[in-house]
Write a structure and sequence with these properties.
The protein has five helices and five strands. By secondary structure, it is α+β, with helices and mostly antiparallel strands. Helix 1 packs antiparallel against helix 4 and helix 2 runs antiparallel to helix 3.
């Protein structure tokens, strides 16, 4: 379920349990028994093609095997790369949400002045800007650690955990500043908000990442 580009890909990377353990296979999507069904009626990531993959007596050969993928570590490395990208992508969505709200508040007038002058609005902006800059600094810090080959999975989990939720809360707050205009397609904040709801779930749910961080802190795996 929820495989991006599953209906248009020529090759699918499939991870499967074999007698030797978890192994990866590069499978031609035209192989007999391979079926990709487009998931429709989404309210989030609407521009992305998402599919359910169905395998019916699908057979793969040893030639399809990924030679370097010899354990569960291989798919986890793929997940880590995807999660790393999310750390930065969420910052972009959060920044656009904040900038959109700032521009709107400067021009939307109420009670003979822009709503940006109100204490409540400025308090929201202060919290949003602090969250955004915290997320940006965390992303840059993790990036520097990754550049020297020392990043750990739990550090990437912390980046995804913090930045996905932080960006979602910024988008929600931006929507509230825009009021009714925030739910229209004229502005980007509701699109960001809907997409970030999905980001909070994919590549490891928010709750799973909290357990990864918790295990790193306590040495106890709570999910086992």
């Amino acid at each position: 379920m929820w495989i991006t580009n599953g209906t248009v890909a020529d090759v699918a990377i499939i991870w499967a349990q074999t007698d030797e353990g978890i192994r990866g296979f590069a499978v031609d999507t035209k192989t007999a028994g391979f079926q990709a069904n487009l998931i429709k009626h989404k309210l989030s990531l609407r521009a992305s093609l998402t599919a359910e993959l169905v395998f019916t007596n699908l057979k793969v050969s040893d030639a399809d095997r990924l030679p370097g993928a010899t354990s569960l570590r291989a798919p986890l490395m793929c997940l880590a790369e995807a999660r790393y990208g999310i750390i930065f992508g969420t910052v972009g969505a959060a920044r656009d949400s904040l900038e959109t709200a700032l521009a709107y508040a400067a021009t939307r007038e109420q009670f003979d002045g822009p709503i940006a002058r109100h204490q409540m609005t400025q308090a929201k902006f202060a919290a949003m800007a602090t969250r955004l800059n915290t997320a940006m600094l965390l992303a840059l810090h993790i990036g520097k650690i990754k550049d020297v080959g020392q990043v750990q999975p739990q550090q990437i989990s912390m980046g995804k955990y913090n930045n996905a939720m932080g960006a979602l809360e910024i988008a929600r707050e931006a929507r509230s500043i825009l009021g009714g205009a925030g739910i229209t397609t004229e502005y980007s904040v509701f699109r960001h908000m809907a997409n970030l709801e999905t980001v909070l779930t994919y590549e490891g749910t928010h709750e799973i990442h909290s357990l990864v961080i918790g295990e790193a802190l306590t040495g106890i795996a709570a999910y086992r």
